[in-house]
Amino acid sequence: MIYSLKGIVQELGPTHVVIDVDGIGYYVGISLQTSQKLVHQQPVFLFTQQIIREDSHQLFGFFSKEEKEMFNLLISVSGVGAVSALLVLSSLSLQEIAGAIGNGNSTLLQKVKGIGVKTAERIIVDLRDKVLKFNVSEENISTFADTKVKDEALSALEVLGIPRKMSERIADKILKQYPDYSVEDLVKQILKNM
Fold first, then answer.
1. Hey, which end of the chain has fewer CB within 10 Å, N or C?
2. pTM for this predicted structure
3. C-beta separation of 94 from 68 below 8 A
4. pLDDT in tens, 128-176
5. Residue 155: how many CA atoms within 13 Å on its side-chain side?
6. Domain-by-domain residue ranges, the chain?
């Protein structure tokens, strides 16, 4: 079992990295969050998870031990493969994933490509007690669910020339009262409250 790799980033893509370890190049599947922390031709240390099947040998890499733990929790759920787990890790932060699972927020999990209603609910049922170690407080859970809507709304307002810092404070207040707002609703309310 390959537990970790330490070497030089030889090739870097959004979903994979090739790490040169003393002349041997290891092709490693990674999440977008890990990819953003790596730099081409720079030293790297990744925790890895090796998955060996009859038809394939795959290696997945993680910048943190916690990300690796979440990956292993996700692939332990029936119907969630390694690619789906990486998509979840690429789309949501560890706290967002743990918050959605702990709070039973299947809607947030379903925003990830390839995760349907049944799979999202299965993830919540199977992992609810296991994500407690990711230390997500109750008050933070709802704000994690809103981050995608909030980010899209703030980006839209930036295009209109409204500074992000100014609209972010208003967005936070609105989302506390109306956590189910769509991007359009949020943009309209921010504009009204300026």
1. N
2. 0.67
3. no
4. 888 877 755 444 444 444 567 888 888 888 877 788 777 888 888 888 7
5. 7
6. 4-62, 66-134, 138-192
